[in-house]
Amino acid sequence: MRKYVLAAGIAAAALIPTFALAQQTCEQQHENRVAGTVVGAGVGALLGAAIAGRHDTGSGIVVGGVSGAVVGNQLTRPTADCAHAYGYYDSNGLWHANRVARGYATGYYDRSGVWVDGAPNGYYDGQGRWIAAASSADASGYYDRDGRWIPASAAGYYDTDGQWVAGAASGHYDEQGRWIAGPVIGRYDDHGRWLAGQPDGHRDVNGVWVADAQPGYYDERGRWIAGSAMGYYDGQGRWISTAPSAADRGSDVAYEGRSDWGDARPGVRAHEAWLEQRIERELNDGTLSQSEADRALRPLDSIRREETSRRVDDGRLSAQDEAYFGAELDNLNNSTR
User: To 10 degrees, the CA torsion angle through 17, 19, 21, 24?
Assistant: First the structure.
């Protein structure tokens, strides 16, 4: 029997180095270990049968298969410390939750499989770049009802069974503008009414979940601000805008009349949404008067109507129209002071 075990171990060790040396993130470690166990069992069984000969083939297969499985399993033992991880981001920037006792998790794995201390406080933009959130660490996420930690910025997440949970949020505003904390799933309608259990999003052609633009958002005073908006609420009910270029630059000056965006310039509608939010925000904090805000919103509405009329059947703008409306929005932004 010893020779079967030894042979199975040698075979598994020789034929499974790719699993052992593969990047061992939480995303890969389970698949690698299962594959290593299966390959080890198969190789061990074949070699055990060959060594046993005709009169002892059954025993050789059984002992060699079991021994190879054990060796393969150990060779692909994970190096990623998922036992202390809040979870990990996959290559698409989507969150995979991990059920870890509160106070036991110490970090997470980013989309490249690199360990990062602390809970995630930010999100990945459309280009896969990490954007740090402008909110406190204690508001950056929440535990769902099953004890899984979820970043507030996640439009959904994969649970520990690999099932996608869409439309997850750290809480919601009721129709009186009061923040109700606690994990929920749903979305807001055009009038700011919360629709429980109705996530707003879709999967793209590659099967990646994409959150749709919101029909508006609640400001910090609990007032509904209508208009297309991209973002999320942190754990304290504060709206965090994720307009692409604003996120890329990390501040509200992202659209301040830039003429050097090149290929990094965001979509026109994201630009429109950001500018509308900026006007509403500055109206609320007194930076702009009501008449100044109205003078800015009227041409913004005109730009929106015109760009909508110029979109072709598939909803896209030509490169020339993208540049034209980008310049118009830059000019409007610069003139609104």
Answer: -160
Question: Does some domain include residue 73?
Answer: yes
Within the chain, where are the H helices? 2-15, 17-21, 26-52, 57-75, 244-249, 268-284, 290-310, 319-335
Question: Would you say 70 and 44 are in contact if contact means Cβ atoms under 8 Å apart?
Answer: no
User: How many helices (DSSP H) and strands (DSSP E) are in the chain?
Assistant: 8, 19
Residue 57 is part of which domain span? Answer: 2-80
Q: Decide if 250 is inside a domain.
A: no
pLDDT in tens for each of the 337 residues of the chain? Answer: 444 444 444 444 444 444 343 334 555 555 555 555 555 555 554 554 555 555 555 554 544 445 555 554 454 444 456 788 999 998 888 999 988 888 889 999 998 888 899 999 888 877 778 888 767 777 889 998 888 999 998 888 998 888 899 989 999 999 899 999 999 999 999 899 999 988 878 877 777 787 888 888 998 889 998 887 888 999 899 988 876 543 333 333 344 444 333 333 456 777 787 788 788 878 887 888 898 888 989 999 899 888 888 877 656 778 788 888 888 888 888 888 6
- State pTM to two decimals: 0.56
- The reply to whether 190 falls in a domain is no
- Compute the half-sphere exposure of residue 123: CA atoms within 13 Å on the CB side of its CA: 29
User: Is 141 a member of any domain?
Assistant: no
Domain count within the chain:
1
